[in-house]
Design a protein that fits this description.
Strand content: 15-25%
Largest sheet: 7 strands, mixed
CATH topology of the largest domain: Aldehyde Dehydrogenase, Chain A, domain 1
Distance between the termini: 97 Å
Mean pLDDT: 96
Structural class: alpha/beta
Shape: globular
Number of domains: 2
Number of strands: 23
Radius of gyration: 24 Å
Low-confidence stretches: none
CATH superfamily of the largest domain: Aldehyde Dehydrogenase, Chain A, domain 1
Amino acid sequence: MAEQLYRSDKLYIGGEWVDPIDGEVAPSIDPSTGEAWAMAAFGGAKDIDRAVAAAREALDGPWRRMTVTERANILRRVATLYAAESGRLAELESRDNGMAIRDTRASAAAHPSWYNYHASLAETLEGRQIPMDPSVHIYTTRNPIGVVGAILPWNAPLLNTSWKLGPSLATGCTIVIKPAEQTPVSTMELARILEQAGVPKGVVNIVPGLGPVAGARLVASPGVDKISFTGEHRTAQEIMKGAAATLKRLSFECGGKSPHILFDDCRLDQALNAATHSAFALCGQSCALGSRLLVQAGIYEQVVAEVARRAAAVRIGPALDPATQMGPQAHAEQLDKTMRYIGIGREEGARLVAGGARPSIEGRSGGYYVSPTVFADVDAGMRIAQEEIFGPVVSVIPFRDEDEAVAIANGTEYGLVAGVWTENLGRAHRVAGRIDAGTVWVNTYRYVRWNVPYGGFGISGIGRESGSSALDEYTETKAVVMSLTSEFPNPYAQ
């Protein structure tokens, strides 16, 4: 008997579950099997328009009149309800994007902390007083930017939703969320939690859809004041063009080609743990991967051999199997891209020491699986060392000294994150200071928390998510200059 498909065939607009006007209901594919597992609603341009209208009405309605404590309490209720539902949300996300269930469960269990953190920020957001002279009182306020359009990636939709929804609600904005067409289901389920938490109608609207249709309309809409986008930098460039007519505020997180640097004085056992995990976590589908492993010459061959050994031992399998350490690629297009880059690595002359092929998974011949792949003797100028693959492919690059390591690390257009392993305190500070990246992890990796700013240099993005500085992306600063004398001289007096 065929499995009954999960139903996620409504859009969430204006606090109501509605059918698409000019979109469609289409299958969502389980990457573990390559087969449909759910039916999901996709919105069209008209659906985006009504979502924006609902968000605008809510912005100008009761939401604006709520106290900061009331908004904060809503965020806390979201966190509490989310924690109770995190296991179910994790399963839905694993079915939709192929992330191993052990990873989605760990991730989802942490998401309530983002909502609780933003609740605290809602109650502590302040302006400042500017001293000038005794005749005036000058102060600033931070006002909600307005209606936010949030465009999500397919690799971690629930986490990215928390990064955009939390500051939107904390600052008093309203929001239209467009999940990626490949992974719409888990974010739609979040809407039920928002309803239970008492989020007023229209404050949050969720409309999955195709990027060139729903995404483009959201970007172009005159009713949207800001776009927050996570995804590929070429898409961000198109968003900038589409937003130019209305001068929307923009914040982007656009991926990376991150250097993970191992000096020969590091604690090698710990560095290897981090290097292999950061290369293959989430099946390589993370912007923060240490996809360029820079290794000092004295330990180079030892690291190559051990990373290759560990890569071959990774347990690959269906996302919902608790024993699985690495699931499939999230969709067929990404699988094709990863395999294409593996071919490019071979053509460029890199030494393949692990992986490089699609594994055979019993009973899952239609799944989008690829083996963890390790290329050694990679030249820093090769395409596999310059271009983001977004698959489980790591390029191991040798270096001689600190200066060469920094030059290689900074030798791409990206600048999202970096890792440094050394027991030399002075070197740690020197290298961290010289690397062009939004985050540098020293003797750790992929340490991402709600109160730490996250974002990139170069084509890795604009602005920051998480941390208190994220609120800058969702507020406008207003200066109020008040005369304390009510006097204004007549400049034309005779």
